[in-house]
Amino acid sequence: MTFLAPFDGSYLAEAALMRASEYGEALDEDVIALSVVPDDEAYATSVGWYETGEDEPFSVSYVTGRLRDGVDDIAPDATFRDERIDDGAAAAIAARITDVADEIRPSVVFLGTDNVGEIAQPVTSVAGGVAANATYDVHIVRYYAPPSISEIQLEKGAYQ
């Protein structure tokens, strides 16, 4: 069994990778962190992967190196995989994630997103496109830290 965590360096992608790593360690399963990187400096700048004027000129390998460092900091035992694409549209990114998932056949995909609640699939949602695939379970991570046991017990008490 393998867990897949799409990773773009965002706050919730970090949380999803952390959660996948925790589950992987507890269940003795492999974790793959997948970064899909469009070959587009404007896109990389808009999502915070690159700043114009950095010492290093823009390249996909530079961005993937930074993303790999982020993965290593959060989940050093995870396997890092990067995919290069030409199109930075959410649908293109989701399609590549889905293609990789079809290839590696994970049992669970861990998605960090705050807009998956609109699973009616907004056009700008990468998560919606990935979550729509029925060949794997999807673990949605909406908060950086999972709720504590006392918070869960309080919520449970509210429904009894």
Characterize this entry briefly:
It contains 6 helices and 5 strands. It has a single domain (2-159), classed as HUPs (Rossmann fold, 3-Layer(aba) Sandwich).
Distance between the ends:
36 Å
CATH superfamily: HUPs
Low-confidence stretches: 117-124
Radius of gyration: 16 Å
**Kindly state the mean pLDDT as a whole number?**
83
CATH class division:
Alpha Beta
Order of helices and strands: EHEHHEHEHEH
Secondary-structure-based class equals: alpha/beta
Q: Assign the CATH topology.
A: Rossmann fold
The percentage helix is 40-55%
Q: How many domains make up the 3D coordinates?
A: 1
Spatially, the strands of the biggest sheet line up as 3-2-1-4-5
Q: State the shape.
A: globular
Number of helices: 6
Q: How many E strands?
A: 5
Word description of this protein:
- The chain is α/β, with parallel strands linked by helices and 160 residues long.
- It has a single domain (2-159), classed as 3-Layer(aba) Sandwich (Rossmann fold), CATH 3.40.50.620.
- It is 44% helix and 19% strand.
- The chain has helices at residues 11-27, 41-46, 60-74, 90-104, 126-131, 149-159, and strands spanning 2-6, 30-38, 79-85, 108-112, 137-141.
- Strand 1, helix 1 (11-27) and strand 2 form a beta-alpha-beta unit.
- The radius of gyration is 16 Å and the shape is globular.
- The model is unreliable at 117-124 (pLDDT under 50).
